[in-house]
Amino acid sequence: MPRPALYSPSRAARRPAQAPAPDAPPPADTVVAAAPPQPRTRGLWAAIVLLGALLAASLALHQRPAPRAITQEDIDAAVLRTLETTTPPSAAARAAEAIAPSVVRVAGYGRDRKSRQEIERGVGTGVVIVDKGTILTNLHVVTGADRIGITFYDGTETTARVTGIQPENDLAVLQAQKVPDDLQAAPLRSTQGLRAGDHVVAVGFPFGIGPSASAGVISGLEREFTSPEGKRQLTHLIQFDAAANPGNSGGPLVTLDGEVVGIVTAILNPTPARTFIGIGFAVPIENAASAVGMPPF
Fold first, then answer.
1. For residue 102, what is the DSSP state?
2. Residue positions annotated with a catalytic role
């Protein structure tokens, strides 16, 4: 019986796979897997992401709408609301407040003839013009006084001596023996440019009461006044209508800015009452400053 034919395979039998050599390149038809990203590559991507976030935030910030500009209508409305809800101090009140720390009470003391005790003979006003305690007042306030007492704005009491007089302007210069640490000198202003109708404030101690303030206007300039006794004639005076009475003598006449333009020195009253009826006089500050050797304006 014939044997069946035996056929050999058309390809050689596969050999067992061998591990490639360590340095051998992979076969041409072998697919090589991508290597995982290295640490330097990850840092670069993180920087790119951060830069993109910052750029986006900057663009968003610049795209915000600009704040609305304040208009004149806004300002007017704010001022109107303030005026409706707040009562500001008057100009006269501000002037009086500004000059008050420089105003002093001046009292002249003498001996009573019968009891020989010291009594207060008269009261006037003074104004500090040098912060070391130099004070201007009227000569008639201190004439005949055995001792001069000064009371400062903060209540400090001391004595003073006369260091200069100017009889033609009824002025006396005082030097206080003791002064407060924070004593303020009054600001002075030239009378040039003052006109009738300008607002002024008189500050002093009328009848010893005070400090008191009264407001008015300048009534005229270059006035003359003769004392009731006819002993003294004053010239180049400022006439004003702010109320002044005995005790105001020697006090400051100030502008609404709180600057001294004159020293109150007299009132005109043709009756024996010698009280204010609407006409007061002040020595221009130029004359008063010259009494203490201060340079002219």
1. G
2. 140, 170, 249
CATH assignment of 199-290? 2.40.10.10
What is the distance of C-alpha 118 from the center of its chain?
44
Element (H, E) at 20: none
The domains of the chain are located at 95-176, 199-290
Residue for token digits 């221009």? 284
Name the DSSP class of 258.
Answer: S
User: In sequence order, what are the beta bridge partners of 46?
Assistant: none
pLDDT at 69 over 90: no
| Segment 246-274, tens digit of pLDDT | 999 999 999 999 999 999 999 998 888 88
Contacts of the segment 86-93: beta carbons below 8 A, 24+ positions apart = 91/199, 91/256, 92/199, 92/201, 92/213, 92/215, 92/256, 93/213
- Per-residue pLDDT tens over the stretch 130-158: 999 999 999 999 999 999 999 999 999 99
Percent of all residues in the chain with a pLDDT value above 70, rounded to a whole number: 76
Which tokens hold the place of 85? 């809800």
Written as six digits, the tokens of 49 are: 């992401």
